[in-house]
Amino acid sequence: MKLYRFSASAGVFVQDAPQCPEQHGVQAYAHPEACNIFFLCTNGTLTVETCENGLLFDGKGAVHNHCNYNWAVHCGERKADLTPISTPGCEYQFGIYPDSHECSTNYIKCAYGEPHPQACEPGLVYDEKIHGCNWPDLLLETCNPEGK
């Protein structure tokens, strides 16, 4: 007999929901079909959780509530809901974005849809490919290290 249960918080049906293997501590497990949903066991109590907009579950992420930035997660066969919920300066509620498409020493980190300007360490510039700061001479296609 299969167990079907509706999770109102995640808005999904949970088929064959796992039992918590540990009765103490906190463990998180991937949902078999959805990359933005996961199972959370807290002291033996199972809940179904949903990652915030722009985040997905990979079991390693610690950006917010066991979830990681969507570009850092490999979902495999699991489906990912990447519908943006945009606010000025933020494509998703959580994410890291360039502050301009030019060579820049600054970037925007979004949390709960609020843009927070960030600065790279001296001598570094924002690299959109790695979503972090990098040496400008590694970005010759988009950035002139001599500033000309």
Q: So how many helices? A: 0
Beta fraction: 35-45%
Task: Give the helix level as a range of percent.
Answer: under 10%
Order of helices and strands: EEEEEEEEEEEE
Rg calc: 19 Å
Which residues form runs of ≥5 with pLDDT under 50? 1-11
Q: Name the average pLDDT.
A: 85
What is the spatial order of strands in the main beta sheet? 3-4-5
Keywords: Chitin-binding, Disulfide bond, Glycoprotein, Repeat, Signal
InterPro entries: Chitin-bd_dom, Chitin-bd_dom_sf, Chitin_bind-dev_reg
GO molecular function, one term: chitin binding
Pfam families: CBM_14 (PF01607)
Characterization of this structure:
- The chain is mainly beta and 148 residues long.
- The protein has two domains: 4-72, no CATH class; 84-148, Antimicrobial Protein, Tachycitin, Chain A (Beta Complex), CATH 2.170.140.
- It contains no helices and twelve strands.
- It has strands spanning 4-7, 12-15, 26-30, 37-42, 45-50, 55-57, 67-69, 95-98, 106-111, 114-119, 125-127, 132-134.
- It has a three-stranded antiparallel β-sheet, with no helix packed on it.
- Strand 8 (95-98) and strand 9 form a beta hairpin.
- The termini are far apart.
- This is Chitin-binding type-2 domain-containing protein.
- Pfam families: CBM_14.
- Residues 17-77, 87-145 form the Chitin-binding type-2 domain.
- It comes from Dendroctonus ponderosae (Mountain pine beetle).
